[in-house]
Amino acid sequence: MKVKVISRSTDEFTRERSQDLQRVFHNFDPNLRTQEKAVEYQRALNAAKLDKIFARPFIGAMDGHIDAISSMAKNPNYLKGIFSGSMDGDIRLWDIANRRTVCRFPGHHGAVRGLTASTDGSTLVSCGTDCTVRLWNVPVATIMESDNLSDCSSEPRAVYMGENAFWAVDHQWNGDLFATAGAQVDIWNHNRSQPVNSFKWGTDSVISVRFNPGEPNLLVTSARSKQLSKCVNYYEYNILNPCEPTWNFKMETGSANDRSIILYDLRVSSPARKLIMRTKTNSISWNPMEPMNFTAANEDCNCYSYDARKLDEAKCVHKDHVSAVMDIDFSPTGREFVTGSYDRTVRIFQYNGGHSREIYHTKRMQRVFCVKFSCDASYVISGSDDTNLRLWKAKASEQLGVLLPREQKRHEYNEALKNRYKHLPEVKRIVRHRHLPRPIYKAGVLRRVMIESERRKDQRRKAHSALGTIVTEPMRKRRIIKEVD
Amino acid sequence: MGAKQENGDPEDILPPLEQELSHELDMKVKKYLRGEGADLEVLKDKKLKGQLYTRENLYGTSAKTAAKTEKWLLPSAGGYLEAEGIEKTWRIKQDTIGREVDISSAKNQYDIVLPDFGPYTLDFTSSGRYMAAAGRKGHLAVVDMKNMSLIKEIQACVLVRETVRDVVFLHNEMFFAAAQKKYPYIYNRDGVELHCLKEHGAVTRLQFLKNHFLLASINKYGQLRYQDVTMGEMIGNFRTGLGRTDVMQANPFNGVVALGHSGGTVSMWKPTSAVPLVKMLCHPGPITAMAFHPDGHLMATSGKERKIKIWDVRKFEVLQTIRGHAKTLDFSQKGLLAAGTGSFVQIFGDFSGSRNYSRYMGHSIVKGYQIRKVAFRPYEDVLGIGHSMGWSSILIPGSGEPNFDTWLANPFETTKQRREKEIHSLLDKLPPETIMLDPSKIGTVKSAKKKEKPTKKEMEADLETAVEAAKGTAIKKKTKGRNKPSKIAVKKKEIVERAKKPFLDQQMVEEEKVAKKKRKIGEEIALPTALQRFSRKKATA
């Protein structure tokens, strides 16, 4: 007879001294875990609910400007710093961590339309409606660290005069060129008081410009026809019915087709390519991780992602805003971007997602004119009409501060659970739900109704006409008028 | 003859020991894979296919790792009893085993003689550390089995002079429920009465569903009740209508509660439906005991006609019939089946792996002692026997799971660990809707079929629940004259009728539809044969 029974000595399974950690043992046998799938589902549900409970994205507002924020720039070399310019010509450097002004740059007489910092973070370039471009020395990081609350202010290093008002400025990546946009696109050098190069294509005025992060000599601009500038004012009256402009512009497209996106190459003397859309593009941002792709924030409430090599159709249309999208900025990870809109909300989209992942709004935030993703991809900064900069978390329910390994693991587990059960109706419902302010909700509903009725009408028109006479274009192509080389 | 000349299959080149090992590993991997993977070939969506492919790979590697961990890293090995020569395992006596094993294990063989309080029933906590024993004539005790110390003893007889029919631990050793003469009570470890569950009535059997925190009870009048012990809410209250029973067992795999009735049927219940999920006729006579295999696929029942049957609960068919009587049955963690009757316990084991139970061990206690309950102690090779003269404990090698998981059930749990586990298990508490026959359906997406019509059975169930709810409505006290019993009876009838009406209406509409269809078909057939070939062909479904 051979016999053995389970026999456990207490010493082997418990700790020796009270200072030791408790000993733990694993047995992964499925039979010991009854109803494991139901338990896991329940945990996923709890994770989704906890996520909602901890979703407090708003960190704080930074006030100090006395007019609407018109432009912002990140300091690529310093994580905590952000520049903002307002409509009254005030430029400030903020310490995001302490949410206070560190330095002011007085000098502009009209609105500051464009702000940008050089890649090494030492030079700030600003331009405005007072027809000047100003270069500033950025104070070194030690000033920001110091605790004295008295604002330091600095004098411009150089002031260059232009002929027309400037609308935007962007600095080259790893170079000392910068481009301004206005009546034409001017390329400047830090040391020269005159533009080194100028581009012009048609009669449009250029409203935004952005250098390619991968190819330093490539830049993209968006332009609008001068004759149509009244349409911008038109928006002012139409905010309560934000869907309207979309349809208004559509009617005018035949006559003035200058709402274009133009690609320039600095190595050749003429613009490279031009894409004409039905509505104006307010801002453009390159995807820093896939530098052949850029996303355009359009007046028709949508954002369009394009491949710069293939402009005949958008790669993706990002819908959800209910009014013109004013500004866009990519996260340094290239996986998502943030948009600010005239409908008083900030939204975060996946780089390939048709709808937004997140919407941020507060009662006091007015029209958002500029948004920026922080350089560590964990915060979003918005500047709005109500003279405030607002700081938001990029992930609404993220835990701030240093995480213990256990906390980190728990967060990862919860994330994985949510991801696994995201298609189940109950989890999906909880994860997707966002509270919206009533006007935005109503505008969204109205917009959907209008789009649906348009679609229905098209369908009927198609059904009642001869086969093949009416071709429905996909949404990715519908808003493009033509592409010019 | 080199390896080259044989065929190139690597399986054949391996030496036999390694072949055996790899085969063993394959079997284990199969266990950890928890069923078949998704069939990727039928998918047309390339992106989804890619995603699922990586996912399946991940499952594969994790299963393999788990299998390897089980093979090489687990701290203890399981017990066994092997006969040599002409020995038979069932002839080996407990004394012989006791002489062969180490002292600490031999300590697990003992008899506690408590002649005063009559047949004892037992329950273990899920970690096997604590045991609750209840004497029929009013004796409750909680014992720490590790160091064999009595934690608390209550003599309900001395205090309240009541019978105790059943005892069951709640989620941990801090609380236990006892079914006493009139009502079940919840006590804490120190013997303080916390709750008297009056709604349950005179309960004969109690079961606790650990994942759902539900206390299920069946009372003298055949009423099955579910109570949520966290919030105290009564989740379900159903009349079985099959008479008094004291055979009740919860299936650990899916939380379904099975009741064995005197008519020979076994009915299975969930807390969200007033009609049983399953009613199966298992024995020609009354059912005396029932037990579920821990993997939830096997059920053992025994009837008064001296037969023990092993059932496949997934197919509801009998796998094996063993001759023998059992007043109490229990499955161990490793799948051994203990059957106790009179003063004799028999252990059956499935050694072929093909669900074929054969005799493994036997044990007789002192003649004249009547066994009331057998219960395997989890994570130990020990069988507890409650009988009319106290309780005994014997060694059954190979019955318990040798390796425990600290996060699931820890026999060496500290107070802090117990508290933490309590919180976590409360967070993971399952809603009662998750109790169903096939729990693998949870967490899957219902395929978008055409709108499902409720089946006749479901409609009947709905009707019954509605009627049950209507009967439960409280009737307001009216002024003199209007509160007569006859009036109340009429009113109650009216309420029930009102509750029934929508269902009956719907039934009528459906019947009419069917009749119309039949008529239509009848008309078509009525066509003259010469014209029938012109009639419209019936649409193929």
UniProtKB/TrEMBL annotation, chain A:
<dbReference type="InterPro" id="IPR015943">
    <property type="entry name" value="WD40/YVTN_repeat-like_dom_sf"/>
</dbReference>
<feature type="repeat" description="WD">
    <location>
        <begin position="318"/>
        <end position="359"/>
    </location>
</feature>
<keyword id="KW-0853">WD repeat</keyword>
<feature type="domain" description="Sof1-like protein">
    <location>
        <begin position="394"/>
        <end position="480"/>
    </location>
</feature>
<dbReference type="InterPro" id="IPR020472">
    <property type="entry name" value="WD40_PAC1"/>
</dbReference>
<keyword id="KW-0539">Nucleus</keyword>
<keyword id="KW-0677">Repeat</keyword>
<dbReference type="InterPro" id="IPR007287">
    <property type="entry name" value="Sof1"/>
</dbReference>
<keyword id="KW-0687">Ribonucleoprotein</keyword>
<feature type="repeat" description="WD">
    <location>
        <begin position="361"/>
        <end position="402"/>
    </location>
</feature>
<dbReference type="GO" id="GO:0032040">
    <property type="term" value="C:small-subunit processome"/>
</dbReference>
<dbReference type="InterPro" id="IPR019775">
    <property type="entry name" value="WD40_repeat_CS"/>
</dbReference>
<protein>
    <recommendedName>
        <fullName>DDB1- and CUL4-associated factor 13</fullName>
    </recommendedName>
</protein>
<dbReference type="InterPro" id="IPR051733">
    <property type="entry name" value="WD_repeat_DCAF13/WDSOF1"/>
</dbReference>
<comment type="similarity">
    <text>Belongs to the WD repeat DCAF13/WDSOF1 family.</text>
</comment>
<dbReference type="GO" id="GO:0000462">
    <property type="term" value="P:maturation of SSU-rRNA from tricistronic rRNA transcript (SSU-rRNA, 5.8S rRNA, LSU-rRNA)"/>
</dbReference>
<dbReference type="InterPro" id="IPR001680">
    <property type="entry name" value="WD40_rpt"/>
</dbReference>
<feature type="repeat" description="WD">
    <location>
        <begin position="62"/>
        <end position="104"/>
    </location>
</feature>
<dbReference type="GO" id="GO:0016567">
    <property type="term" value="P:protein ubiquitination"/>
</dbReference>
<dbReference type="Pfam" id="PF04158">
    <property type="entry name" value="Sof1"/>
</dbReference>
<feature type="repeat" description="WD">
    <location>
        <begin position="105"/>
        <end position="146"/>
    </location>
</feature>
<dbReference type="InterPro" id="IPR036322">
    <property type="entry name" value="WD40_repeat_dom_sf"/>
</dbReference>
UniProtKB/TrEMBL annotation, chain B:
<feature type="domain" description="BING4 C-terminal">
    <location>
        <begin position="359"/>
        <end position="439"/>
    </location>
</feature>
<dbReference type="InterPro" id="IPR015943">
    <property type="entry name" value="WD40/YVTN_repeat-like_dom_sf"/>
</dbReference>
<dbReference type="InterPro" id="IPR001680">
    <property type="entry name" value="WD40_rpt"/>
</dbReference>
<keyword id="KW-0539">Nucleus</keyword>
<dbReference type="Pfam" id="PF00400">
    <property type="entry name" value="WD40"/>
</dbReference>
<dbReference type="GO" id="GO:0032040">
    <property type="term" value="C:small-subunit processome"/>
</dbReference>
<keyword id="KW-0677">Repeat</keyword>
<dbReference type="InterPro" id="IPR012952">
    <property type="entry name" value="BING4_C_dom"/>
</dbReference>
<protein>
    <recommendedName>
        <fullName>BING4 C-terminal domain-containing protein</fullName>
    </recommendedName>
</protein>
<dbReference type="GO" id="GO:0030686">
    <property type="term" value="C:90S preribosome"/>
</dbReference>
<dbReference type="Pfam" id="PF08149">
    <property type="entry name" value="BING4CT"/>
</dbReference>
<dbReference type="GO" id="GO:0000462">
    <property type="term" value="P:maturation of SSU-rRNA from tricistronic rRNA transcript (SSU-rRNA, 5.8S rRNA, LSU-rRNA)"/>
</dbReference>
<keyword id="KW-0853">WD repeat</keyword>
<dbReference type="InterPro" id="IPR040315">
    <property type="entry name" value="WDR46/Utp7"/>
</dbReference>
<feature type="repeat" description="WD">
    <location>
        <begin position="280"/>
        <end position="321"/>
    </location>
</feature>
<dbReference type="InterPro" id="IPR036322">
    <property type="entry name" value="WD40_repeat_dom_sf"/>
</dbReference>
